[in-house]
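::Amino acid chain::
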Amino acid sequence: MHYVYVMVYISLAVAMQLLTGNFPVSFFAFPLNLVFAALWLFLLWMLYKEFKYMTKIYILLIVM
């Protein structure tokens, strides 16, 4: 259900950007950046959990 809220929020942000015309984009940038950063961290965590016994992937994730 959390994904539905995130998708609705992103859709509303995009719609408001399109409808308001010359509105400062930075107003919407911070929350969207948080969503993308959280998604990136979640994907890294899933990769780490799945491949933590493979040394090459483990080293790659630590270096990042």
Summary: The mean pLDDT is 77.
